[in-house]
Amino acid sequence: MILLNQAYIQQALPQGRALVFDEIDSTNEYLLQHYQSLPSGSLCLAETQTAGRGRRGRKWYSPVGENLYFSMLWHYKSTNLSQISSLSLLVALVIAETFEELKVEDIQIKWPNDIYYQGKKMGGILNESRIDQSGFYLVIGIGLNLAMSSVDPNIVTQAWSDLSEYQLDRNQIATVLARRLQQTLSEFEQQGFAPFLERWYKFDIYYQQAVRLITENAEIHGISQGINDKGELLLERDGKIETFAIGEISLRSN
Ligand code: ATP
Ligand code: BTN
Fold first, then answer.
1. Is position 58 annotated as part of the catalytic site?
2. In terms of C-beta density within 10 A (0-12 exposed, 13-18 middle, 19 or more buried), how is residue 136 classed?
3. Which numbered atom of ligand 2 lies nearest the CA of 55?
4. What angle do CA 78, 74, 171 make, to 5 degrees?
5. Which atom of ligand 2 sits closest to the CA of residue 28?
6. Is the previous residue joined to 39 through a cis bond, with omega within 30 degrees of 0?
7. What confidence tens digit (pLDDT) does each residue in 140-170 have?
8. Catalytic residue list contains 121
9. Tens of pLDDT, residues 56-97
10. In the structure, which protein residues have their CB atom closer than 6 angstroms to any atom of ligand 2?
11. Is 55 tagged catalytic?
């Protein structure tokens, strides 16, 4: 196994510091603990996480091996944060386009934060934030199953996949992803999500398919019609389009 190489990643990072750990609780947690002392763009990577997390208190299975556990800190000086919820969609798009550039086929995005390969979950995104007097700090967390031979079924409770057949170089993926993310986050800060909307459709796993939305107290059925420029899901029901904001919602095929 080729280990993550801090010096290599650091020299390829346009801004920020690169920190690589053999083992950590969570790469997101590390950046949330240290955001005040690290420059924007800093990256935290680990070979394994003992408390990797997903959305809504779920766990992210993080074995030692060839997976990627990647978090990036981004400091927003602007206080116009109305579009911040669409950021996980933007990050998903950056991941999908990075793999496309590397000739990995059949990557899709499931709104709002999942990366699928061959129709099964291969990766996920968890954005967390802190606000203080100097601004808004975002931690973008990405888990990608680049190579994973088995899982703990108590943690991974749904179909999963990995990219082991591609034998990808983790140091290369980490640096390409970090560069693209930094570039895209700067563009997003100036222009919001709207300019990226068209690029989303190509990867949208359920576009124009029957789906169900699982909310806390209901299941809503309809046809997925993609997303709008706020990153909200467009659901067609009885010929009308309804919008659903990112939040406590899970999207499933019907
Ligand atoms: P949704 O966001 O639509 O609710 P979800 O069910 O995938 O989707 P998330 O919170 O996004 O929920 O992701 C956490 C889930 O991902 C866990 O409950 C687990 O089933 C699954 N999971 C955990 N680790 C991995 C992994 N390494 N690879 C694939 N799936 C994983
Ligand atoms: C999800 O699908 O719910 C999101 C999973 C996000 C996992 C990544 S792994 C790197 C970073 N550190 C964490 O603890 N979580 C994210």
1. no
2. middle
3. 3
4. 155
5. 12
6. no
7. 999 999 999 999 999 999 999 999 999 999 9
8. yes
9. 899 999 999 889 999 999 998 765 667 788 899 999 999 999
10. 26-28, 49, 52-55, 58, 60, 69-71, 113-114, 124-126, 141-143
11. yes
